[in-house]
Amino acid sequence: MLVKRFLLSYTKAMHRINRAPKDKGGAANSPADYGAVCLEHKPLNYNSNPYQTSLRYLSTTSNRMATVNDENARQITGSATVSLYQMKKLIKAACPTLGESVEGPTCIETQCPVCHIVPGVNTSADPPPVRARIYVNKTTGSFACSSCHYLGRWEQIEKFFPPYNRSAKSLQELRKLRTAFLELKRECTGSDTPVHSIPADSIELDGASAKVVTDALGIPGAFGESLVQLKARWNALNKELFVPLKDVEDRVIGYKALQRSTSEGELHERTVPEANGSGIIQLRCNIPSAGTRAKEQCHLNAVLVLSVLDLLALGTAKLNVTAVCLPHGLKSLPQQCLPALERFQRMTLWFNYDTAGWDTARNYAKKLDERRCLFVRPTEQHPTPYRALQQQDGGPELKTILAKAQPILHQSITTFHALRQDVLSDLQNIDKVQGVKWRRYPTLNKLLKGHRKGELTVLTGPTGCGKTTFMSDYSLDLAQQGVSTLWGSFEIRNTRLAATLLRQMVGRPLDEHLVDFERWADEFERLPIYFMTFHGQQPIKVVMEAIEHAQYVHDIQHVIIDNLQFMMGMLEESKHLDRYWKQDAIIGAFRSFATRRNCHVTLVIHPRKERDTDELTTSSIFGGAKASQEADNVLLIQDKRLTSVRGKKYLQIAKNRYSGDLGIMPLDFDKASLSYAQRKRKADGGTDGSSLAVASVGHPQADSM
């Protein structure tokens, strides 16, 4: 009756919290606020076992726990869609009160907000030395309490995470809900004795008794040492071996039993409990003479097997890994087991060499996070550990088979599931994804949207049109906003380049204001701008080594090569090489570097020699088509001042892979500042000298790939 009464109280309180919207005193994170549909809480069948009913009602386990005759259990165990983003957001907001949470591959570990906090009560006192932890599954939202083995759904506990921005009436309801919740937990979990304890008429094995057990079961005597390490127990009357299953807190919550059949003479293995066990068996396969680092690797690497015999076989090989036996073999991997496997960075699944074992390995890997899983491919040449040990005289060794384990998830192949959170992050931070905005060139912001890492930009223009001057002004704008820049000027000396950059920053000729040189030089020195000391022709290998070093040491975000033809040069030993092939190889190296290091690379390339009256296009870039194909952005400086009375100089965006917007930006040169910075137009058509936007013409890009 007590459980019945608290269940009714819990259900009513949850109805009141869920129904009330936030502006009416409801839960700040109630499903109504997120547009979610609340679960329907139907009356429980109190004619059944009250302990069994309450356990099913508050369990996170799937519909497998509901029997065919228990209609109410099937209706209640269905769960609504749980948002990982909302779970993380809620747990992170509670960190000042509950302490830091730990996110693993499959679970988020944090302190239980129900056991330690009373809604509306000041908890500034020192926390107790030991607090219960909960493990929240990132896929299903189910949580498990480490102290009482309690299992529940996310919607049952999410309301208890601080801070509480609720009215006094709602806080009172929440306290009543908490009281009912705690009482129900105590009723469900019962005493401190595990529900599935090992039979009391068994004895714990030691070195001598382990030898008797191995002989009685007909298994190799080398297994005795591992049995002692596992604290296995033996029932001499029934000749039955018990190996304990332990949870994440190293407590016994079940066991596996091994017994040799009298009729068939074969070893039979069974698991208690038969389903939804939350424990595993872990055996450290340390090398006795291993150092500290090797022992640490043992704690981080695991080999997952399905039977106790396979586990004991791995224990004889001294593989410097932790062997783990799963509770239910190929039947299921309960999500309650996942917290105990969180600490492993690499797990090798070594299952039966048949179709069922292969399919199960792939399914289990998805649950465990495929990125840290490897598998031993199920073939006759790769038998299970116990069979391999039996065939050791003529078969492969365990170490040899384990060394052939392959990743389940190929490093060059991914899925949308792996990209999902990155896509969400990009959408939520669209301004940052678009890149750093230019202050001097607002038209570029309209067309290119920003300066992004990991891209390749190609700039070309006629000889003497001002490519280097424009690029120095372009890069200075970004450097003043914190974009660390590496200049590779192979055409002009670094002294001249630095003087140009300094003058562009000051906005006036410093030779006429030498008294201000020190002040401006100190300010320029604080900018994250670095220069390569190369000049003229250089081998690509030497240049790439310098760039790689600078990117690692100085966290370079923007590399400028001015220009590609000067860097290539004309070496005697390369005179027989195809010049186009050589340029394509260099462009390929820079493309690879930009992608691999997530660094923006800008290449200044001279165009082919064409008639002055013809406009430049992407086909005008010197060399093969690789430059325009590999580039994310192609910028062309068009200079028509010498071929037309009213000719203008402008920058044309001929390729834009990010947004596809094409257009032009007028280039008006200010000789005093050596800058092309755009000026804001006044109402009367003049300019006020400030570096703001000028309207440009944009065209949708048909194909930027």
Could you give the topology of this structure?
Elements (H helix, E strand, L loop, with lengths): L1 H18 L30 H8 L13 H7 L6 H10 L1 H4 L3 E2 L3 E5 L1 H4 L16 E5 L5 E3 L5 E2 L1 H4 L10 H22 L13 E2 L2 H11 L5 H7 L3 E3 L4 E7 L5 E9 L6 E6 L8 E5 L6 H9 E5 L2 H8 L5 E5 L20 E4 L5 H14 L4 E3 L9 H6 L7 H6 L2 E2 L8 H13 L1 H5 L7 H7 L7 E5 L6 H13 L5 E5 L4 H13 L10 H9 L3 E3 L8 H15 L3 E5 L1 H5 L10 H19 L2 E5 L21 H5 L2 E7 L9 E8 L4 E6 L31 E3 L5
Helical fraction: 25-40%
Mean pLDDT: 77
Count of discrete alpha- or pi-helical segments spanning 4 or more residues: 25
Uncertain residue segments: 15-80, 190-194, 687-705
Radius of gyration: 35 Å
How do the strands of the widest beta sheet line up side by side? 19-18-20-21-17-22-23-24-25
Largest sheet: 9 strands, mixed
Number of strands: 25
What's this model, at a glance?
34% of the residues lie in helices and 16% in strands. It has 25 helices and 25 strands.
